[in-house]
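Question (not urgent): is this output format expected?
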Amino acid sequence: KGSYGEVHLIKHKREKKQYVIKKLALLKASKRERKAAELEAKLLSKLKHPNIVSYKDSFEHDDGFLYIVMGFAEGGDLYTKLREYRDRNEVLSEVQVVRWFIQICMAIQYLHQRHILHRDLKTQNIFLTKTQMIKVGDLGIAKVLDGASDMATTLIGTPYYMSPELFSNKPYNYKSDIWALGCCVYEIMTLKHAFNAKDMNSLVYKILKKKMPRMP
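Got this back:
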């Protein structure tokens, strides 16, 4: 369960294949939430890339829910995988880091070429297949930019991965996704957040100072 709805693992009766179904409540949803849900469904249907979660179907039901059926990444999310490494006191090999980094880059490049900002790139939204292949997901709050020069201004995303311009209330564009990508890669290498603090104010201060945390 998340702030937008629930996710269930389902099995296609005919295909005998597992999928993920995202159940989003539209009845109680605000205009903004409804728009975000519909946008996610519309966006996913257009995207076809080996490193982006695949889209199967979407439909609104009489029960007031929007259902989005997506490909299932059996390897779980990257955040959980990195935590397992940390718990075992292990680090990833350089080869593995580079392999995942390139795949995330390819997914982001594909989105940006289509004028789509992810806006919530974090290790919890990056998934793995059985063979440890990257699938970037959760495009629910992505914003399609009219042109490469357009700037989005909504303050959205997860604080650990947010860029300085977001906290400064400045308009931002594709560079914010690249900042988040940097934070994800730092996390893959070190198994820690690039910017961490006990409270929000300290976190904002660290990010605004843009002081790159030291690599262990």
